[in-house]
Amino acid sequence: IATAEESGSVRLIRTYVQDYTTIEHGDARYTGGPLEGSVTILESSGGPFVVGTHERITCVVYAKSTEAGIDLDAPCTMTAPSGDRWYTHSKRRSGSVETGGGGPGTMEILGGTGVYAGIGGSCTYDVGYLPDDWVAMIADCTWQK
Questions:
Q1: Beta-strand pair 54-66/102-112
Q2: Handedness of CA 44, 50, 52, 58 (dihedral sign)
Q3: Residue 2: is its pLDDT beyond 60?
Q4: E strand intervals along the chain
Q5: DSSP state of 7
Q6: Domain 7-144 CATH (choose: 3.30.420, 2.40.160, 3.40.1090, 1.10.287)
Q7: Which class for 14: exposed (0-12), middle (13-18), buried (19 or more C-beta within 10 A)?
Q8: pLDDT (tens digit, 9 = 90+) per residue, 98-111?
Q9: What's the whole-model pTM score?
């Protein structure tokens, strides 16, 4: 049986500013660029995720949009004030990256350093693209060490 320190759940909110570039390419649009912002832990069952903590987040987003939909990937690195880091990879196959767009997706927790070393997990999320290049996302995750 896993203890509270070996597995758990966490709910978080990420807010970012995006600086994407989009090109037209045949029947598709390709979008890429950084997301920079913060992540705040809203709820946690314990372990390395402490309610109310804030960390820096940097992501690189790349997406292909066609009439059939979107294929978006976003690897991200979160950095705590201590310098400890943890890594995620988000994927989304619906919605858009335009203002008013967004949609549901999945995210993997892929380890880290310090208190996040050896952590893994999975999440579901919903993201919204706001005016003036702002992006907001809420994720619900389960994790284990």
A1: unpaired
A2: negative
A3: no
A4: 7-18, 21-25, 28-44, 54-66, 69-79, 85-92, 102-112, 120-129, 134-144
A5: E
A6: 2.40.160
A7: buried
A8: 999 999 999 999 99
A9: 0.92
